[in-house]
Design goal:
88 residues, 3-stranded antiparallel beta sheet, single chain, mainly beta
């Protein structure tokens, strides 16, 4: 039998960033729920524009294989972190 969940976090997706050009690239290999501080470089557009986090956030569903016009990644903010009530 699996263990009961004792800690959990709630996140809200607050922004989606689309890939504008097939050559837009991430600055590093991001994973879902990697934390980024405001102004952290996330990637670079084909045009040379640096894509930075506009606020403290968590990257969600980064997709380096996204086509132009598709969702490249989402930014989420934590809304709740809690320890579950372990008494039954």
């Amino acid at each position: 039998m699996p263990s009961a969940v004792t800690n959990y976090e709630h996140f809200r997706l607050v922004q989606v960033i689309d890939k504008q050009h097939v050559e837009d690239q991430f600055s590093q290999p991001w994973h879902s729920f990697d934390f980024v501080s405001k102004q952290t470089e996330i990637g670079q557009r084909q045009s040379g524009e640096i894509v930075k986090a506009p606020f403290d956030a968590f990257i969600v569903f980064p997709n380096s294989n996204a086509a132009a016009g598709q969702e490249w990644f989402y930014l989420a903010q934590q809304v709740h972190k809690s320890k579950a009530n372990t008494r039954l």
